From TrEMBL:
The lineage of its organism: Bacteria, Pseudomonadati, Pseudomonadota, Gammaproteobacteria, Oceanospirillales. Keywords: DNA-binding. This is DNA-binding transcriptional LysR family regulator. Gene3D superfamilies: Periplasmic binding protein-like II. One of its GO terms (molecular function) is DNA binding. It comes from Halomonas campaniensis.
Length: 61
């Protein structure tokens, strides 16, 4: 998640999750990580939020 994503989207997402899935665990990582594409392909990261051009083709954007 980009820093703007954390400011804009994260509070609303956390509020929604607290209601709908109170036991869920959520962790965020910065999108500048070089290995984000690989980690998503391997299932270690499930969702990327923000402008993340390094993902390239093969991801729903």
């Amino acid at each position: 998640m980009t820093d703007i994503g954390e400011i804009v989207f994260l509070p609303r997402l956390l509020e929604h999750l607290a209601r709908e899935a109170p036991g869920i665990r959520l962790s965020t990582v910065r999108s500048h990580r070089e290995d984000l594409k690989r980690e998503m392909e391997e299932g270690r990261i499930d969702l990327a939020v923000g402008l993340i051009p390094q993902l390239g083709a093969g991801f729903y954007q």
